[in-house]
Amino acid sequence: MDRQSMLGLFLIGLILIGFSVLNAPSDEEIANLKKQQDSIAQVDQQEAITKAANLKTVQEKQNAPIDAVLNDTLLNDSLKQLKAQDLLGVFASAASGQEEFVTIENDVMKVTLTSKGGRVKVVELKSYKTAEGKPVRLFESDSSSFGLNFFAQNRSVSTNNLFFQPQGKGFVVTGKDSSVFSYRLNAGSPDRYIEYQYSLTADKYILGFNVNFVGVNDIIASNASYVELNWTQQIQKQEKDMNAERINSTIYYMFADEDKEVDYLSETENETEEIKTKLKWVSMKQQFFTQALVAQKSFDKPTRIETVSGEEGDSYVKQMNVAFTLPYSHGQRENFAMHFYIGPNHYQLLKKAGDDLQKQIPLGWGIFGWVNRYLVIPIFNFLNSFDLNYGIIILILTIAIKIMLLPLTYKAYLSQAKMKVLKPEIEVIQANNKEEPMKLQQEMMALYKKAGVSPLGGCLPMLLQMPILIAMFRFFPQSIELRQESFLWAKDLSTYDSILDLPFHIWGYGDHVSLWTLLMTISTLIITKVNSGAAMTNPQMKWMMYLMPIIFLGVFNNYSAGLSYYYFLANMISVGQQYLFKSFVDEDAIHRKIQENKKRPTSQTKSKFQQRLEKMAKEKGYKMPK
């Protein structure tokens, strides 16, 4: 890209900056605006706290009457049973009992089930640890609720705190084996019940889950065409950086239509949505782990979903609530088949699990996602098969990508060399046409055409490399492969590498010093100097070019160390390429070639752009150069 093109881009930026300065509000206006924003923020914060409290107590409210009866010390057992009968009808016997646990286990996870609610108490992933070195535990019942809600005999029934009866014992499956365990909620007799059926296959992060309704067709309200499945969970902290977890955690869902479109709630804002079409699955996605509930066919409509972010000082990341609709047609025996995926956000594992669960990994939209899916991930997985350190893998990946881009990089350098050779003639044209910008542009275009040089020749090759740079920006922070993998001083390449924790917080920077980000910034300044040396004479443009890396220093300080390390490597390789190209590109030969091109007769065919410029020049009264 020549100096004029670069200058034009930066002038646009300077105009925007100048406009913002000229239109900046007064101190009084700023104070009033801050007061309004503080008031709005206070209202939003209070609303978020209220929502979180409502979500946390929704199951408690549903079970409050029966809990009050069971905990009333003034009532004897007979009276408690009568009152429970009045509140729960045929399900009264399940109101009290002894909570018992059953463990089912396979090669990759250990699932503890509880008779209270017949639900999952906790899932422990065997191959993963938290940032504190503890086992990764998902679906913990202490911070979640899960159960059916429906009307039966004119009573509202919630199964979350009712006691189910186990049907069999726990199990451990290995190899290719699978096994099943069931809980039953009796409805007055052994042949009438609601059953939760859990199954595991040895080497998968999939927990089968079926709900069976047997003989309860005359108990559930006759006008009910569905039952509701409520799932509320406070997502627990697993990683080093709580803020990074929060902005990477939300609810994803996929529509059940043929398009299989995946959507999600905001990752940065509290959001509630009622989805009025059928869904295939809904997942509570964290930064590196997912808990997804997938229907064998589809969940009926509507599905209500909500996320509420934890506040400063809270021990949990976000609170998520999902209310599913399960179709019910009052048959003697009805089954609704589902399964959970409870495991890592590993692209290949999610893809292998089916139902397009891998679409919840945000690899970028359009071409950026394609680059990650079809270029970066395959290369990364291939290198990973050699069991190398991830720092070495990133190094080889960077070199491989740089080699693939080498023709474009060389073409960009060659174009810059041509523009450098033309610089004296360009300066003469600029000096002679200071007061006539249209004529200046016309003569510049004529020079480029005679010399056989494109002013965008250096920009286009660099522009074609941008998808890879942006794809990497999306890939590294989402790559679970880098999680808790160390390289040199970085203990975890998936998060920032702090070499110094500051006793205070710097706005726009943070409370620590990331060395890889610092090295990336220094290398960016070096490559800026190498690329801009002779071509950039405008002091304002130079100031902007050197300011951008400083801004990125603050932005990347809290990002993945693997990402900063990759950009650092890419910068240093680029510097090496520049010096390599310089050693064998003969600028004198380029100059002679350009002079030869200028002597040749130029084509009489004019581009549409040139025709428009000439038309505008004639309207202004300028004579066109021959």
Structure, described:
- This protein has 626 residues and is an alpha+beta fold.
- The chain is built from 15 helices and 21 strands.
- Helix 8 (406-432) crosses helix 9 (437-451) and helix 9 (437-451) packs across helix 14 (587-599).
- The longest helix has 44 residues, at 27-70.
- It starts with a helix and ends in a 6-residue tail after the last helix.
- The model is unreliable at 1-25 and 47-62 (pLDDT under 50).
List the main descriptive attributes of the protein structure presented here.
2 domains; 15 helices; elongated; 27% strand; single chain; five-stranded mixed sheet; Beta-galactosidase, Chain A, domain 5; 21 strands; disordered N terminus; alpha+beta; 14-stranded antiparallel sheet; 626 residues
Beta strand count: 21
CATH architecture of the largest domain: Distorted Sandwich
Query: The CATH topology of the largest domain is what?
Result: Beta-galactosidase, Chain A, domain 5
Distance between the termini: 26 Å
Q: Any idea of the CATH class of the largest domain?
A: Mainly Beta
Give average pLDDT, whole number.
Answer: 79
Main sheet characteristics: 14 strands, antiparallel
Low-confidence stretches: 1-25, 47-62
Structural class: alpha+beta
List the helices and strands and how they pair.
Elements: H1 3-22, H2 27-70, H3 77-88, E1 101-105, E2 109-114, E3 119-129, E4 135-138, E5 144-152, E6 155-158, E7 165-167, E8 171-172, E9 178-189, E10 192-201, E11 206-214, E12 226-236, H4 242-246, E13 250-255, E14 262-264, E15 271-275, E16 279-285, E17 289-309, E18 316-327, E19 333-344, H5 347-353, H6 366-384, H7 390-404, H8 406-432, H9 437-451, H10 459-478, E20 498-506, E21 510-514, H11 515-532, H12 539-556, H13 561-584, H14 587-599, H15 608-620
Parallel strand pairs: 1-8
Antiparallel strand pairs: 1-2, 2-3, 3-4, 5-6, 5-12, 7-9, 9-10, 10-11, 11-19, 12-18, 13-14, 13-16, 15-17, 16-17, 17-18, 17-19, 20-21
